[in-house]
Fold these 2 entries.
Entry 1:
Amino acid sequence: MLRRLHIQNLPLLRDIALTWDPHLNILTGETGAGKSLLVEALATLLGAKADLPTPASRAVIEAEFDPVPQAVHDLLEEPLTPPLLLRCEISPQGRRRYFLNDALLSAQQVREIAYHLLEIHSQHETQALFRPAYQMRLLDAYAELHDELAAYRKRYHEWRHLADEVQRLQTATEARQQRRAWLENQLAQVPPNLSAENYAQLETQVRRIEYQNLFVTTLSQWLHQLSEAPHNPISLLSQAVKALQRLPEGETTLTDATTLLESARYNIQEAADLLSRLLDAYTLNPHDIETIQSQYDLYNHLMHRFQVPTVELLIETIQRYQAELAALQAEENALEPAQQKLQALTQQLLDAAYRLELARLAAAQNLSDEVEAYIAELGLKGARFQISVERLTSPHSPLRWYDQPVEVTPDGFNQVTFLIQTNPGFPMAPLSQVASGGEMSRIMLALKAALAKKMALPTLILDEIDTGLSGETAQRMGAFLSRLAQRLQIILITHLPAIAAQPGAHFYIAKQPTTDGSTETRIRPLTPSERIAEIARLLSGNPDDPAARLAAQNLLTTAGAL
């Protein structure tokens, strides 16, 4: 339970140090004195996103809890020696840091611990009781489904994400297939060894082939002229030598001429033979030439096709297309496994939702019975209270639970409705349709009492849960709170004298001027005589009114507070 609370440097709450009674603690004071701000500070300490004003300097909210519930010990990694000191430090920039016995904690860890330490009922929470989502939250808390809901919601978000992914894959099938066909067509002629280096080698080879073609053409032309043409020099020289040799001998000059002609024919023949050998050496295999030229032409064709000026850009474009094609193929390959996984996950989700439903149905009956008994104590005798747990269905839902089309939400496939009958003969109806403000206050208190009992909650903070009550009904609520405070600690903010007169510690909260000309909130315990004056003020507005003071004393005596 909450033993001590210390607040420093918050606007209005500059220096508050309180020691709490283990049973009933009553806070009263003028409207606007800071009671709700105190509750907001406690909510902040417990990790809630409370709306606190930003402090001018570092503010500290610290609370001591002792004894510490076993559930808190189970959450902690290291053994804890009581008391438990929970501290929140707030910077002027609004940043919050949390500490447990000086060990730094996250806000989520604080909220998990606070769940077992303290429950706060704010002024606005009674109105929230009209909302189905809040009603389900109360029922789930009573059913102690915290861990089961966390596991279900994790599975639900995984299921939702996978269902969206499968839907995306299915929706994009036609467009994906069209795009894949286009990419495959674009990449159909791309060789596997496409590279800038290969293109440079091919380009060199093509230039060499062009040079060799020129060389071979020239060699062939002149080899033909020298040795194969009808009037080639070799043949002509041979004929000349033969003709001259048939002439009568005796002329030295003629012999010399014949010798020179013979030598010329021999030299030309040697030259032709050399040209022939060169021609054989420079002549390439036609198949090799065709292969090189076709590969080179393919590169140029691809650059034209992809409309890029260089091989580097061509390769970059092709790699981008290949990556996109691989991604599309992966998506197609992923669809069937994703569908199979979704089917299995859907069944797991529905099974978990059904288990939540069974737990809710069982808890709904027990909670209904407890609340009905409590509201009878609080003056709603003859009223009936019932919690309806129904399954969410839709004819358009693709999900089936035993052939029934169901809708799943982050809370399962149920909707919870709190029903009440305050007058015999009238049908059960939702709270929002029949319950008055006073009835809602009593129903809320009954729910909080049932939850505190079920969860073994050590501390309950009630901020003006008595809204809409007066007279005998207020006295009944006061007596009920007094009995409830015998088994758990209650911190109660009230404006009703009958409730403020219950046995317990009574604190007065008020704004007071400071030496620097501003105001701050002060909270102090009241002595018995001061308590009479405060209840007299609640009764008449005047703490010194003799009649009001006598009535206040009677209230305190009747309640057993004096």
Entry 2:
Amino acid sequence: MVFVAIIVASVVGLLPAIITGRIVDQALVGNDMGLLIKLLFAALGAMLASQLIGVLENYINSWISQRIIFDMKNQMYDHLQHMPHSFFTTEKQGDIVTRMNTDISGVSSVISGTLTQVVSNVATVITTLIALFSMSWKLALVGLAVLPLLILPTRSAGRVRLKLVQEAQAKNDEMNQVINETLSVSGSLLMKMFTREAQEYDNFVKVNEEVTEISLKENRSGSWFRVVMGMFTQLGPLLIYFAGGLFIIEHYDPTLTVGTVTATVSLVNRLYRPVESLMNLSVSFTRSLAMFTRIFDYLDREATIVSPANGAKPPMDMAEIVYDHVAFGYDDADELILTDIDFTVPGGKMYAIVGPSGSGKSTVVNLIPRLYDVAAGAVRVAGVDVRNFDLEYLRSNIGVVTQEAYLFNGTILDNLRYANENASMAEIEEACRIANIYDFIQNQPNGFEAQVGNRGLKLSGGEKQRLSIARVVLKNPKVLILDEATSALDSISEQAIQDALEKLMVGRTSIVIAHRLSTILKADKILVVKGGVIAEQGTHEELLAAGGVYHELYETQFRQAIESERGAGKRAGLDIQALSTSFDVREVHDSAVTDVHLLARSNHRFWREVGERPTMAATTAIVKDVPEGAEEKHFLGFYDENDELVAVMDLIVGYPDEHGALIRWFTVVADRHRQGIGSQLFADVRAALSAQGVTHLTLQVPEQEGALAFWAEQGFAATGERFEGGRFPTVTLSRSI
């Protein structure tokens, strides 16, 4: 329809010039006023018809170009969604956005501009040439004699402009890169914190000045070109008037009339601009080609990780995960990151992966949801190679919690419903309780409708992390992957998250990448990745005894050597600073007894249930007392970042035997105990004691429901010993460390 409209418009566009010739020859020369009026109305009608056809052409043209852009953007977005994860780790985000928006939107100018202009110009040239030669072939040849003079400067100027346009585009890309890097959230923060505003401004001014200079060069070259073209286009009509006058005055062509000369001048003027535009076609075509090259560079890239036809959907409950001699490399198969990863995670078990930085721990777990495909071997879940899974089904059954929680700019509820848009509020609230984030949300002025900000920056790291865990809870995956989910958080947030993760892992097959020993100790088995292979695997005790890679990692992480029976078998003194990675640990002396007493009194419910009221004298006695036969006593205080006492522990080391330890008293301030700090502190202490040669723990606990439940959760069991002689009945509990 556009092309038909263009051809019709080209034909109709000839009429005003032809009618002008008739006005001169018939109406003016013949003194016929009636004919003059008719011809004027005919010319007016032709011009109106040409304009209306142009409007119709423009509307159809715009509709086509905009619908093509609509379709191309949809196709590009769908294509990019299915590109492998490696695509997004290598491509610049700014490039992706530019090609999605600027380049595809530029197609509009190609469709509505370049393409239609070519057709329109060709139609105009052809129809005009036919009209010219039908009126006077002699004058037509005179008018066309100027065309070579138009072609040469047009082609020369086109080459110069193309070079300048390419330089300008490169500089614009450089300027866009500066803008994207320095005015993003992370970039602006980095700039502010390093006070680099002045330097970045100078850098931007420099690039902006280069862009401006190139644009000015392009404009200057275009100005001189327009001057030359203006001269040549005026030369053509003058030659026609000269030739026409010569033919008429000297009677060389008796059939030639003044009207024919006038019409020829109009038609030649109508011819020059399309010819000039066609000569510039190479410039427009090259610019359009560069745009399409960038677009199709993405569209032509193959989505290497796709769902197979009739992909498998096996039951995923308590699914076993098998790595069968897996090898993997990102770009070149000759440069493998993983060379022979071989292990099995039984259904429902939790395995921890440890290893030096850059050893490929995250890469190992990323193979399960097929973010990457193996180069050799196979990863099987529930007995099926992940490459044979229905991809959507596989990923819908895998939950991933990473170190950096990503939230969309929206409300808390929007981000939670991203996992399950049909989740009821009851399900959402329960997920938030499991993730230890419900109370925080309830305390927000807008509750679940509170805005999280760009990338969740209105929330703390711990709050974002707990929201991401609640989101995974709503997804209800069968397989859970935790990639350093708590490594960069404060101790209180970390404990809340650790508790949430432990609830989440129940009944699921889990693989955890962790740096905290307390997390690693809870694993059913520990896998040590080094040099592209599973260098070691086993329990904490087995790996320490082996004295290999894990032993080295362990020493590096906690800055201490493992003390064991060497030489005379004498265990070294306790390293106090190694007892916790969350709080500052210090020996409590007499001067701090008052703080210990106030901490103890905060646990009102406990003391009511045991029928005792803590006194200052009793607290002092506990701090000072050393049981008979014990050589090494430590009364420890755990202090937070505000130097407030959070917990105390009465620890007797080397008692009741050389490789044991007795915990006589362990109390956490009441409000922190409800946050789960006690479990985390004990896990840290237990890990550090193990590192220093302690093999088993004993403690005496009041017969109080809460205390017995807490220690049962820490893995302690009753020995059968019960004591009635003290201030309140106690039972003895023990466990292997």
